[in-house]
Amino acid sequence: MTQSSLKHQFISVLFFILVSLQSMAFAQENDTIQCQTIILPEGWFMFSSYISPVQTNLYDLLYSLISDGSMILVKDENGAAILPEWGWNGIGYFSNFKGYQIKMSVEDSLEICGDKIDIVDLQVQILSGWSFLSYLHDYEEEVDVFFEDVSTSILIVKDFSGGVYLPEYNYNGIGNLEPGNGYQIKMNSSQTLIYSN
Asked: Is there a single domain that holds both residue 91 and residue 8?
């Protein structure tokens, strides 16, 4: 390891400690703080969260996975990545409205704490082409029910295991959308997805 990477690692650890202290102070002041635990299997997975985290820097949000060596890399829909071996955060900040691909060397879990997203009448823009989409409910929902209002514009929805939803063929190989999971979606036109409670 080079002196530069050791320095970066030290700064990251120090920043993580400061943010953790800030998070604990926030939790003591705000008794409505909630946490979501996401199980990350070995290999590739797509994750998202219905919790707006106290810590929004994605590298720092994932630091527990980085420090124990279980996370190999994270990518967003544009190909930007977090590369822990190099201390590189090419993504920047976490967004609740996006899904993220993550590759794990072993199964681990990620706990995200903060405020639960208020989804009542929330509108999420899904652009034409491929996107990584978050799932913001805290319960499972059938994929065809969730996407009912935009299904005529959906070409395909994929989960991390390769299951697909093809509305044109009335085929649901995903089953239910699950909290903590992210999904790849390809649209033939941009649409607005409206959440309801």
From this structure: yes
Return d(Cα 138, Cα 180) in angstroms, integer: 8
Domain of residue 178, residue span = 123-194
When divided into structural domains, the chain yields a total of: 2
- Kindly state whether residues 15 and 109 are assigned to the same domain: yes
Which tokens go with 108? 């681990």
DSSP 57-102: BHHHHTHHHHHTT-EEEEE-TTS-EEEGGGTEESS-B--TTS-EEE
Q: Per residue in 160-188, pLDDT tens?
A: 999 999 999 999 999 999 999 999 999 99
151 and 182 fall within a common domain: yes
Structure-block tokens of residue 186:
């390809």
Stretch (H or E) spanning 104 = strand 100-104
Element of type H or E holding 39: strand 34-40
